[in-house]
Amino acid sequence: MEFYTTISILSSDFSEVKKTLREAEEAGAAMIHWDVMDGCFVPNLTFGAKFIDDCRKHTGLIFDTHLMITSPQTKVAPFLNSSDIVTFHYEAIPAGAENLIKEIHLAGKKVGISINPSTDPVVLHPYLTKLDFVLLMAVEPGRGGQKLNENVYERLKILTEMRRQANALFSITVDGGVDGNNATALRQNGADGVVLGTSFVNAHDKKKLIETVSVI
Ligand code: DX5
Ligand code: ZN
């Protein structure tokens, strides 16, 4: 898979979501990144599965759903309708993610686990060969527009080495604070793709931003 961008609508005007979807598609993005926040796992509250379902008919882009919610194992079902990728947080299910991974795969969807900047990637060891994605947070989850945490570069190196040793095949997406200036370094350190949120919403030339990010 070539280096991909997935567009977070979090910093956009939700009342104009159709416009944002169209802009992402026209700019050449691969996916739409839906930041689902429940006000418990993170203080912010965004939207539920119905919002994503209602947007499904407006674009052919891949739907990459990022669940920043508590107890994802009990709440995941509605998100299996329209999402192509469902990513939950390790921190929300430390007791074991095997069953949730199985449930998402049984629904024919790809599965990802996300870890916060302070979570040691080693916690993912039991799941490495079962995952399609690891969403490596470069900011504390809950808000858009934050500055990328520089520890993500070292974490990328650790995670790519873990993947090599496990002969695993998951893709690594970096999420949070990514823009046209740091995307190349992220890619050089092992990222397979990035989430663009505020940098995309604010970009004057969105197509140029995605081209910049996608070319090493
Ligand atoms: C933060 C979200 C990110 C964020 C990315 O909790 O998971 O996807 O919206 O937005 P920027 O690119 O603005 O950091
Ligand atoms: Zn996200």
Describe the strand arrangement of the main beta sheet, using strand numbers. Answer: 1-2-3-4-5-6-7-8
Shape: globular
CATH domain topology: TIM Barrel
Helix share, percent: 25-40%
Biggest sheet architecture: 8 strands, parallel, barrel
> What is the first-to-last residue Cα distance?
15 Å
Structural class: alpha/beta
Q: Architecture, according to CATH?
A: Alpha-Beta Barrel
Count of alpha/pi helices:
8
Bound molecules: D-xylitol-5-phosphate, zinc ion
Summed over residues and divided by their number, the pLDDT gives a mean of 97
Quaternary state, please?
single chain
Task: Supply the CATH class.
Answer: Alpha Beta
Q: Rg to the nearest angstrom?
A: 16 Å
Order of helical and strand elements: EHEHEHEHEEHEHEHH
Report the sheet-strand fraction.
Answer: 15-25%
What count of structural domains? 1
State the CATH superfamily name. Answer: Aldolase class I
